[in-house]
Amino acid sequence: MTAAVAVPRSSPTQAVILVGGEGTRLRPITSRVPKPVAPVVERPFVSYILDNLARHGVSRAVFSTGFLAEAIEAEIGDGSRFGLEVAYAVEDEPLGTAGAIANCESKLRAGNFFVFNGDVLSDVDLSALAALHVAKGGMGTIFLTPVEDPRRYGLVELDDEGRVSSFLEKPSDHEGTALINAGVYVLEPEVLEMVPRGKLFSIERGVFPRLAQAGSLYGYVDHGYWRDIGTPDSYLQAHFDILESTVYTAVAEEMGSQYLYVDETAQVDPGARVVPPCYIGARVRIAAGARVGPLAVLGAGVVVGEGATVLETVAQAGVVIGAHAQVEGSVLVRDASVGAGTQLVGAVLGEGVSVGAGNRLAGGICVYPGTSLPDNSIQFYEQLRGREGP
Ligand code: GTP
Questions:
Q1: Which of ligand 1's atoms lies nearest the C-alpha of 17?
Q2: Residue 9 forms part of a structural domain
Q3: What lines the ligand 1 site, CB under 6 Å?
Q4: For residues 138 and 164, what is the distance between their CA atoms, to the nearest angstrom?
Q5: How confident is the model at residue 22 (pLDDT cuts 50, 70, 90)?
Q6: What is the CATH number of the domain that holds 85?
Q7: Which one is predicted more confidently, 304 or 149?
Q8: Is residue 159's pLDDT more than 70?
Q9: Whether residue 302 sits in one domain with residue 204
């Protein structure tokens, strides 16, 4: 591989989106739904990526799928709903990030392309990333973001000209803020020649370090919003960031300057309180004396009983919250139910989980689909955000 290529380049108009992972860390939110289409403020997560691509002139995206491929295709379809054309390259078994990109080759048009990890929420200026790529003329340009603890990511160092001087995947011993690979980059098609076909191969371990050594990998540093939604805490926080417009999304436009969206088919009792920022979906019912928000997302058909409190929480479609229940800092996956008077603090209930009345679950507890807890069966206390059990 030569250090730099003198051929004039243009900005990419196509993208590969990596969505073949199992999303194990996000279970039970992803026990039944693949992470890329897990609902985030009532939209499949990856639609936020598609919006950003479309905003920056990308007209075609190839989804690199594997795990639960059909579920992703069923949700995203041909992409027309999101303003671009979507094609799919399905793996029979996981090929790793580089293998997965190479597997998309026959679905890509000639020329360079963006690559997105399918779990990145960001309003990064893709046009600026592409412009830097074109100006520098390397084989690849990575969007870099600073994080306080880079050990879970690819640590990147740049020289004075913005060239990547070292790329170290998941360094075990690094302390302090550092620039990491944000999981968004531009590649020239020649890079695919470095990837062996049909076997597991990682871009982070097998390609980026070699490109860096050849002086052909550049970094685009952006201090704007970036988050990967790989864990339940991060998934919840992504909702808050969208509700508060910390990241620019189409949802912000729906909510407007009041930071509030209440669907016209929702029924909010005049004796209930809805405190923004809040998103109340279609056919939601909120009973008298209930308080919802701040920072609550109620998906379609959610029912909040009399006197219940729901704050800093995501309740996906079909969730039922009983009278005088208190739900805080929690994620309730679709069709979960919470009995009267139950308290949830920092809990994650999987799809269809039923927690009977008079329970207390706290401290990051995850309940997997298929579970039914009877009334008065658990009193799980743990100090959390200053709260203690009796
Ligand atoms: P965890 O199991 O929780 O680590 O999540 P994950 O499987 O999504 O893995 P990770 O977060 O490291 O992956 C980053 C992105 O790359 C995600 O969008 C994955 O869907 C995607 N990805 C990871 N490995 C593969 C692969 O072998 N094939 C494809 N097509 N995509 C992959």
A1: 18
A2: no
A3: 18-26, 35, 64, 66, 91, 94-97, 100, 117-119, 230
A4: 10
A5: confident
A6: 3.90.550.10
A7: 304
A8: yes
A9: no
What is the domain count for the chain? 2
DSSP per-residue letters across 296-314? EEE-TT-EE-TT-EEESEE
Indicate whether 64 and 206 sit together in one domain.
yes
Q: What is the pLDDT of residue 88?
A: 97
Inform me whether the pLDDT recorded for 1 exceeds 80. no
Answer whether 295's CB lies under 8 Å from 314's CB.
no
Of 318, 258, 322, which Cα lies nearest the Cα of 293?
258
Nearest atom in ligand 1 to the alpha carbon of residue 95 is 27
Tokens for 25, please give them. Answer: 């860390």
Task: Tell me what percent of the chain is helix, strand and coil, each rounded to the nearest 5.
Answer: 25, 30, 45
Residue 288: give its domain's CATH number: 2.160.10.10
Q: Domain for residue 87, yes or no? A: yes
Residues 120 and 195 in one domain: yes
Q: Is residue 78 part of a domain?
A: yes
The tokens describing 384, both together, are: 């959390």
Q: Is residue 247 part of a domain?
A: no
Asked if residue 71 and residue 20 are part of one domain, the reply reads: yes
Residue bearing tokens 């340009």: 141
Domain that holds residue 361: 259-380
- Ligand 1 centroid, distance to 19 Cα (angstroms): 6
Average pLDDT over every residue of 355-364: 94
Q: What are phi and psi of 328, to 5 degrees?
A: -145, 140
